[in-house]
Fold this protein.
Amino acid sequence: MCTGAALSRFGLFEGINEVLLSTTSRKRECNAAPIGVRVLNGRCTLRVFEGAKTLTNLLSTPYCVAHVSHDAMLFVRAALSNLDDDEFEWLTFDDVELPVISGCEAYVALGCTQVSAAKNTTTFVLSPLDGRVLSTTPRAHNRGFSALIEACVLATRYVVFHDPHMLEHILELEAVAKRCGDARVKQAFELLLELIGE
């Protein structure tokens, strides 16, 4: 079982951690997507929605890599398009080759065990295999970046459901991102709006 102590070395703590999760199929077709990894009472879980490429890959190859990153543009691109093949390097964990996204602050490879499947979601328990911390630069919390991450979550749902209330909320988050974010966050938000057709 995944323990909080094991994951905290790689930047994942109690609560829902927004990471970039990479997965692969048996044919080495890799995918990356922003997703929340939950750590609660020493148990680490991942809930994946039906129809997601992440779920297809995990059912094929039950391993993933969780990446900690503050790259705003990377989150938007992973949420709403595909990363280029040359943005991944292939590393071996537990005798399985997995795609690791270049340039992240830290990553941890995880084994995934399916524990339940509901109508629209499948839940996995995650167990850490190995990882690396690549940057130890301290970083203060930024409300603009947080607004962008929340907008990414909403955007992935908006492109499916086209709910106008979701769009309203995305535009409210844009105001926070523009007020509090750095230039990279602002550029990433512009790309997000472009990719959802707004």
